[in-house]
Amino acid sequence: MALAGKITSEIGVHKTAEKWLNLYSKELHHIQNVAERIHGAKLHQGDDWHANDSVKHWTYIVDGKTVTCHETIESIDVENKTITFKLYGEDIDDKFKVFKLIFEAIDKNDGSAAIRWSCEYERLNKDVPRPYGYMEFCTKCAEDVDAYFVKAEENANK
Length: 158
Hints:
The protein is of the alpha+beta class. It contains 4 helices and 7 strands. This is Bet v I/Major latex protein domain-containing protein.
């Protein structure tokens, strides 16, 4: 049984890929105010939320349980609208040797967009379940953010 793997989920969204990339690359601290399953996030180390060497501390719900971890931005590829986040410490280190979440904002040919989340991981042992709950968490957060964007636009048009 392989201990390493990659799982992916994708969701259609209402705003452009550029708008989504901007949120995750320049306004990440706002996600905690919009996503229901994120209880809190704070800058743990560094002066800038979006610098690669900054460390954020997150508290969130996965699989019905409150969990915590640290996160750093490993890379941002503006051209491909991709951000790689490395998660570690606390609840992550209890189960995984490697844990990365990859965010991709994708423009579709019909003018719509999609958000794709991928999780690359290596479990500590075969008893650790694959992190499907993280894909569900990422999808739910994307749904919450998308609903926020739609509501904000509706309010702006009133």
